[in-house]
Amino acid sequence: MTLRYQIIPVTAFQQNCSLVWCDETLEAAVIDPGGDLARIRAAVQQQGVTLQAIWLTHAHIDHAGGTGQLSRELQLPIIGPHPGDQFWIDGLPQQSQMFGFPAAEPFTPTRWLADGDTVQIGRQTLNVRHCPGHTPGHVVFHSPQIARAFVGDVLFAGSIGRTDFPGGDHATLLASIRERLWPMGDETVFIPGHGPESSFGAERRSNPHVRDR
Ligand SMILES: [Zn+2]
Ligand SMILES: [Zn+2]
């Protein structure tokens, strides 16, 4: 038995929403349903899985914009992010306007996450790490079993998250990457919020922002 996943790019920002599921129970969670809910629901149907929860890395509109509606329509609990992102959740209406997104339904997380927490889907458990810097309440989800990490906008192949938004901080982001992502292991493949997958080892070798010196 293992954890499986499918990446579903959503919104005009091509955000990597991920459908993750336990291949034994076929219970699934959706990470960062930023929008394009019909596309997400089609993937759920195509994989033959049952959605049980919404997991959020952070509350930017391209990651969280579809959360309220999806939660209401399918009666799904909203897990995450860390409470540091409450002001981003409160600001979703303004974020929608600013970026020309459909109006986001408001929501309240069912369960906030903290560093060291775990989340469960079927018989699979993922570890939660708090990785502030891009936003204060950003979390990532790590499956040691399949050596995958869903890292939102913390780290990208060859780049790192923006830190010029309110609550962003460059030094904090670098510390999150070095102290909380690198220990997951060089071989661990990460699914970033945008763009292609890479491994932590590859980024430690070649990413100009965070490579080993
Ligand atoms: Zn973001
Ligand atoms: Zn993003």
TrEMBL record:
Source organism of the structure: Kinneretia aquatilis
Output compositional bias ranges, type Basic and acidic residues: 202-213
> Has the keyword Metal-binding been applied to this entry?
yes
Please identify the protein, giving its name as recorded.
Metallo-beta-lactamase domain-containing protein
Family annotation (CDD domains): YcbL-like_MBL-fold
UniProt keywords, alphabetically:
Hydrolase, Metal-binding, Zinc
UniProt cross-references to InterPro entries, sorted A to Z = MBL_Glyoxalase_II, Metallo-B-lactamas, RibonucZ/Hydroxyglut_hydro
Identify which cofactors the protein needs according to its UniProt entry. Zn(2+)
User: Domain named Metallo-beta-lactamase: which ranges?
Assistant: 14-194
Q: Which GO terms describe its molecular function?
A: hydrolase activity; metal ion binding
Give the source's domain of life in one word. Answer: Bacteria
